[in-house]
Design goal:
With 261 residues, the chain is of the alpha/beta class. It folds into two domains: 157 residues, LigB-like (Protocatechuate 4,5-dioxygenase, Chain B); 98 residues, LigB-like (Protocatechuate 4,5-dioxygenase, Chain B). The chain contains nine helices and ten strands.
Length: 261
């Protein structure tokens, strides 16, 4: 939110402008790395109309905990999510919560309240509790694919590489990039850009078995959102739109499908 000179900043701004000016969704359903369901084999859906921000991070300056991002939820859209998940045999639980920083931090850059405000509802949906089950998250995405036909945009917020421990060891401002940051980011691109179908699913699932996987992701919750995106993409081709391998972090961005002419 504050590092306006970071290369990812204008990339997020461009995505936000495209969404508000060209995609023009009726609502956004978002999955974040920072919400895993508490119950086994259950997906939690935020049904709240009011969504305060969850400052689910620690040790930052005081102003980080005073951030604001105007937003609204939708019980109606949340119910549609619950319905389509139920139709696909996925157990759900209704809950009321705020938006975690995996949502409001990128969204505040994408949808700056003064420059590019977002006026449609946001409904956040959890990941499964098991962060090693990539196949389940592809099935989760496949279950919500139908929402795209209703002009509901699906956004999946994670990181292509995410190793905070090594980032702390390297120190802020380091110019050193860990080898696994590059190799895993490259492997994700190959998998996500595979032709849609069984092989793409297989390649995505196989990422978790790579020798560098646990270096790139000591835990997999930051990787799994793109598995949801792959599932929700259906037969649409995936394409990496931008990436940056930086220290022990990978900032890759992907889109699935093209805008209608």
């Amino acid at each position: 939110m504050y590092e306006v000179n970071h290369p990812v900043f204008p990339q997020l701004q461009n995505i936000g402008k495209e969404i508000t000016s060209k995609v023009k969704p009726s609502a956004i359903v978002v999955f974040s790395a920072h919400w895993q369901a508490e119950r086994v084999n259950t997906i939690e859906v935020n049904v709240s109309e009011e969504e305060p921000l969850l400052y689910d991070y620690y040790g930052f300056p005081r102003h980080y905990y005073m951030e604001k991002f105007p937003n609204k939820g939708s019980a109606k859209v949340a119910q549609r999510v619950i319905d389509v998940l139920g139709d696909n045999g996925i157990r759900t639980e209704r809950t009321e919560r705020g938006l975690d920083h995996g949502v409001f931090v990128p969204f505040k850059v994408m949808f700056n309240p003064e420059q590019n405000p977002l006026t449609v509802p946001i409904v956040q949906v959890s990941l499964f509790d098991d962060d090693t089950d990539a196949a389940a998250h592809i099935r989760l995405g496949r279950a919500v694919e139908k929402l795209r036909e209703e002009n509901i945009l699906i956004i999946c917020s994670g990181m292509s590489v995410h190793n905070l421990r090594h980032l702390m060891m390297l120190g802020r401002g380091t110019d050193r990039t860990m080898p696994y940051t590059v190799t895993f980011d490259d492997a994700l691109k190959v998998a996500a850009e595979t032709e849609p179908g069984e092989q793409r699913d297989k390649n995505m699932i196989g990422l978790l078995e790579r020798p560098d996987a646990r270096q790139a992701h000591p835990t997999f919750e930051h990787l799994l959102p793109i598995h949801i995106a792959v599932g929700a993409a259906g037969s649409d081709q995936g394409k990496q739109s931008w990436t940056l391998a930086e220290a022990s972090m990978g900032w890759a961005q992907y889109r699935f499908g093209e805008l209608a002419a």
